[in-house]
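Dear support,

We are seeing what looks like truncated structure output for some complexes. This example has three components. We would appreciate it if you could run it in full and send us the complete token output so we can diff it against ours.
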Amino acid sequence: MSADASPTERRAKPRVGLFVTCLVDLIRPSIGFAAVKLLEDAGCTVDVPVQTCCGQPAYNSGDRATTRDIAEQVIAAFQGYDYVVAPSGSCAGMIKAHYPELFADDPNLLPKAEALADKTFELTSFLVDVLGISKVDAAFSGTVTYHDSCSGLRELGVKTQPRKLLASVEGLTLVEMNDSDVCCGFGGTFAVKYSDISGAIVDAKAKNVEEAHARTLLAGDLGCLMNMAGKLSRDGKTIEVRHVAEVLAGMTDEPPIGAPKLEKGERP
Amino acid sequence: MSARDEILANIRRALGVKGTETIRKQIVAERLERAPKGLIPARGQASGEERLAVFKAQAEASLATVTEVTSPAEVPQSIALFLRSHNLPATLRMGDDLRLKAMPWAETSLEISHGPSAGGDLNAVSHAFGGVAETGTLVMVSGPENPSTLNFLPDNHIIVVSSKDIASDYETVWNRVRFTFGKGGMPRTVNWITGPSRSGDIEQTLLLGAHGPRRLHIVVVRD
Amino acid sequence: MNVHTTSPQFKRNAARALADTQLQKALGNVKQGFIDKRAKAAAKLPEFEALRDSARDIKNHTLENLDLYLEAYEAKVTASGGHVHFARNAEDARDIILSLCREAGAKTVTKGKSMIAEEIEINDHLEKNGITPVETDLGEYIIQLRHELPSHIIAPAVHLNATQVEQDFRRVHKNLDPNRDLSQPVQLLSEARSVLRERFLAADVGITGANFLVAETGTSVIVTNEGNGDLTQILPKTHIVLASIEKLVPTLEDVSQILRVLARSATGQDMSVYTTFSTGPRRASDADGPENYHVVLIDNGRSAMLGSDFQEMLRCIRCGACMNHCPVYHAVGGHAYGWVYPGPMGAVLTPALIGVDKAGHLPNATTFCGRCESVCPVRIPLPKLMRHWREREFERHLAPATFRSGLAFWSFFAKRPALYRLATRAAMVTLGFAGRHRGRFKWLPLAKGWTKYRDFPAPEGETFQARWKRERSRRPA
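Here is the complete output from our reference environment:
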């Protein structure tokens, strides 16, 4: 081993703290397990410290005090890891782009927030940009189309990484939809507070998804996925919706988002 | 307190300054005096033929038409041909520009009139102060030589520009303006013109000749 | 403060806009046109991103020294024979403009496109005092006929279709032959051109805005494609420039830097057709040009933004790229925002100018998708500034009570991981069981806004953290 090897190279197994995100924790844990599999396959040791949320709902509602309380918890919970990885560009973006700003006037916490920001990554970006992985061991038959979630795309530059990994999935064909980089209209509480506008934006998104003629819609953020899946199912569309990690990990046993969960022998 | 003083006081309070700080005053005075250049795109940074080619390509991209002549003496014939080929009347309005006046207009059958436009002229010719290759822009300065109304009122505007006056970038032309009119001095109006008048205000449909000229024709005199 | 403000009714405005098929059709043009053109123009210029930095830095430097640049600019205008008038607010500005028009004995006033003129509602004021203002930008002219506000800062009539414009022309242009074909945009343009040509030649005063004011030379700069701004200012005897104080830039070099990103960001042109630099009144030897040149410098809330969380908004050069790329603007158009400035820049600026109590919806009605910031030529962090407004609202308890209590309920658990795990575990088991068969809910208590347009995917049942604990504790480390 050369002397100037990076810490990752020197230490056999990077220790990753999984920031599972509150939505994945509550709604679709299988995304979390898919992320764990991808990280472990890539040679990481994965741990899941006790956690709640990154604080983004409070932050975007203008409640800085609550956000700081939550952020302090996150900083403390993830202090001991080499990396923090989230299967979400939105939550990773919150930690990476906004925590330092939140503590800009706090000389005590700012360095800690910055240290956490430096080692926090969105899942596909971590795999590709940090670990240098270019293919995964998975198979998925059929066409998929990929929606670029806003925070991941514009705060973290997640665009080519998921596509690069998807290209290595056996049997998978990626077809691009129009305006894949345009917001789906989720926006957290926006979807409820301004439901009419959110409804119109997701309507446009659903049309683009449909026109791509893919069997499956993928994205890297569960919030966007729930929004788009909910819209597609409301409109009676049969397009399956999944988190990109599920496909990359080859863990697609769980029914798609918003699809019925069937016991063995059960019919819908 | 006057509105002026009140506004300045509010600005100073907001910025936490007094307005008497020597260092700030120096920084501002120096910037105004030196007028440092910013970032100049490489696009127009060429010399000779290459620069002229960029100018032409950019001007045509802005929907102007460009023709070249090898001497000022050829300009009247070239313009007469342009008007004829577009079925336009053989009339032409121009200012007192000496370069234009020296051209052999009598060799054509064009009916020439002089002075600013009051709105009744179909065709006008002006001489540009300069051109800018990076965007195919013409730089016009106001004055009795080339009245500003000629740039806007006629339906068809023809601009003569000398190839040696076509610079790579705007900054080079500003330096010539400063040299001609004195540092900090300006003619009443400097017009940058890049293509003929247009509007996209109705259904985003691009239409030429909104209020200004429907056609912009450039005659480059190679000298 | 303002009779035309409907910002407090944003939600109602938005609902109406979404139901307006004519408007929805017109908004389709925004999505297609502006975005592609900007992307192409930016891609053609390798230095574009660096020029954005340069433009940002120039505006920042000017704002930090605005007092000094204003003084330098004023001195230069005066030296070139022009006059500078300072207006604290809209009322000051209206008084100054009216008295200048009266001094000139004005009956009709032509106007170039100016957002500050909309902001101070100068047209109403002139009309009330017997002076006829005539908008000359084609889009502005059309909306003036309709007594509407612009719905876009660079394409004021973008919410209209050609048939609507035809109806307006037939209603207002009394001499128009009823048999004349006006079905095509080009025919509408030619009609407007001939009507407005008369107005240009007859006007006593021309009022324009200013894209920039140059301190080095005392110059005002306007940027247009039609040439209407030029005819407005060179034909009448008096030219009045209206400009808010943040339009200052130091030098001709600085304005040239910013012009390289303005048109590219706005319309995707490398340069607009007419960029005009005006300095003082006509010179002794000039054959044309205005005899009088006045600049009305308007504060109207800008100095209060300096030194605040919102100072960066004063960099705005009004290109409209933010609204062109905004999914919310695409959905509801500009009028829903309820005042002069729509889209993301309006969502930041409007609360500063008319009060967050009136315009509170605007910085909330956004998904924070960040596309506006990604295209802003002067890199204004628009989402961040919108968030600052939400913080102000939160501090002042302006958010609706139901929303605040919902947030408080959630925050309570988010701050207590142990309780959170217990509570969410039980809740997700219940929800997961209830939604198991269909996989989704068509209706859920407290989520009416969500389920009005989409289903709510059912949770798997067990939380990740519960399952992780169960599975991994069984496994030897």
